[in-house]
Amino acid sequence: MPNMSFFESIVGAGAILCGFCGTFLTFRIQREASYYRQPVADFQSGEGKDVYIGLTHFSGAFLLLILGTLSATVFGFLLPLLALAGCVWIRTKPNLVVGGLVGTLILIAAYFWAELIHYGILKNALRNDHREWSRESPVVIGGIAAAVILAVVAYFTVPGAP
């Protein structure tokens, strides 16, 4: 059975990763909400009202961020916390935690790569393009595939309990 300091370290690192993902997820949700509607002041009545804009969209990068956040929560925080609380099944599977965190890091890296493509940063041109999913889809599919493959490789190569 692995030393409990492994899971103590993972909980700390996982909490940082969860906070990072949660911050970016909050930013994305807030941005999409502002594309959905915005407050407007009516100066004659002195009241404000919401104006529907309807420019929200669910991008491939947003999907990667959601998957990365869920993965960070499960493998970086929940499972190590349960191991520290005495769950023997998880204590005997440190490779599951390592594999999940490797997959999480790949998903988050793919999220940033997809955002660079989405905003045309790599081309030095910020523009609005309605074909973003077609441009992002190789990164999204590749990021998810790489996350799964590397997580499985880490799972089977990190020594577990006998």
If you compute it from the alpha carbons, what radius of gyration comes out, rounded to the nearest whole angstrom? 20 Å
How much beta, percentage-wise? 5-15%
Helix content: 55-70%
Uncertain residue segments:
none
The largest sheet has its strands arranged as: 1-2
Taken together, the total number of domains comes to: 1
Global outline: elongated
Would you give an account of this structure?
- The protein is mostly helical.
- It has one domain.
- 70% of the residues lie in helices and 7% in strands.
- The chain is built from five helices and two strands; from the N terminus they run αββαααα.
- The chain has a two-stranded antiparallel ribbon with strand order 1-2.
- Strand 1 (37-42) and strand 2 (47-52) form a beta hairpin.
- The longest helix has 33 residues, at 4-36.
- The protein is elongated and about 70 Å long.
Topology (SSEs and partners):
Blueprint: H1 4-36, E1 37-42, E2 47-52, H2 60-84, H3 88-91, H4 94-118, H5 132-157
Antiparallel strand pairs: 1-2
Keywords:
162 residues; two-stranded antiparallel sheet; single chain; 2 strands; mainly alpha; 5 helices
Summarize this entry quickly.
With 162 residues, this protein is mainly α. Helix content is 70%, strand content 7%.
